[in-house]
Specification:
With about 300 residues, this protein is an alpha+beta fold. The chain has three domains: about 160 residues, Roll (Thiol Ester Dehydrase, Chain A), CATH 3.10.129.10; about 50 residues, no CATH class; about 80 residues, OB fold (Dihydrolipoamide Acetyltransferase, E2P) (Beta Barrel), CATH 2.40.50. About 15% of the residues lie in helices and about 40% in strands. It has four helices and 14 strands.
Length: about 300
């Protein structure tokens, strides 16, 4: 690209960004109403799926269900604003036609209880300047949703996506990185030292995995990290054949491993042909280097 053409592209990008910024602060959804009141069956299904056995549920809903009560399902919602559609139209028109969710943040202000009627409003909180990522170049769009229970603010949900133009160059093949935050950083620090760390509640001494800020048995936020022995068995597993992804070599086995300590974690089962993995198979922890600066805990089959 010539210097003149490059300058023209830069000007067009700057002009588009100014138009995108004008949508900050505008409504993304107004007067939204949850399709269902907070109810025990949905709470029970969520807790079963998450393995959460806290006695607090279903008298109250798990706080992390905050967004679930606002979802429109397959039929969607009719309360999305024209500003939100216009913003996405501008991004599509600028060539940023692909989309990927990047992260979300939630704040909890009051518990939700069965019978609560959920309403919500959402605002386009920010649109970033053009960013270049491994996926491609685009703009991050953050929306903030205020969720109310019977008219009282119960929490906020920030959701961030990247609208991008796919990179033309084939990116370097690399295993996806986990999202590391203040709640799970200690686990990944342990992995870097070849330790598999699980949490133990400081109050009721219940072991838990994955890492959480509070105990799902008693609710205490006091905890300590303990090193697992690395022994375990295959509790369940799936064999991945599709979709193909350049960083992986299908078919491969993803197992739900029950550690000797009693907690379970998801990881790859290695050292055994995918069609020979069985429920109850003993496994032993290893650390697999997947690239020059990243290792992951995996489990090698040790025979029946």
């Amino acid at each position: 690209m010539s210097e003149k053409a490059g300058a023209a592209v830069s000007r067009d990008s700057d002009d588009l960004y100014e138009r995108l910024k004008a949508y900050e602060g505008l409504a993304a959804a107004t007067s939204g109403v949850g399709k269902d009141i907070v109810n025990e069956p949905m709470i029970r299904h969520w807790c079963e799926a998450m393995g959460d056995t806290s006695p607090a549920y279903p008298e109250t809903a798990p706080p992390t269900m905050l967004q679930a009560w606002t979802m429109g399902g397959l039929s969607g919602h009719t309360d999305r604003s024209s500003a939100y559609d216009e913003l996405f139209g501008l991004l599509d028109g600028g060539g940023y036609t692909s989309v990927v969710a990047t992260d979300c943040e939630q704040e909890y202000l009051k518990p939700l209880c069965p019978g609560d009627r959920i309403t919500f409003d959402a605002v386009i909180e920010s649109v970033s300047a053009r960013k270049t990522t491994k996926l491609g170049t685009g703009h991050f769009v953050t929306t903030r949703m205020d969720v109310r229970a019977n008219g009282e603010l119960a929490g906020t949900h920030r959701f961030r996506i990247l609208k991008y133009a796919p990179a033309r160059q084939k990116p370097k093949v690399q295993r996806p990185r986990p999202v590391i935050n203040r709640d799970n950083a200690g686990f990944w620090d342990g992995v870097a030292e070849h330790k598999l760390l699980i949490q133990r509640c400081g109050l009721c001494r219940t072991l838990r995995f994955p890492w959480l800020p509070g105990c799902n048995a008693c609710g205490s936020q006091e905890w300590e990290a303990v090193e697992a022995s690395g022994a375990g068995t295959v509790y369940s597993y799936v064999v991945m054949h599709h979709p193909p992804f350049p960083a992986f070599d299908p078919p491969y086995t993803v197992g739900l491993i029950e550690l000797a300590e009693g907690v379970r974690m998801v990881s790859n089962v290695i050292g055994v042909p995918y069609d020979k993995v069985r429920v109850g198979m003993p496994v032993r922890l290893e650390f697999l280097r997947v690239d020059e600066d990243w290792e992951l805990p995996v489990f090698r089959g040790t025979g029946s």
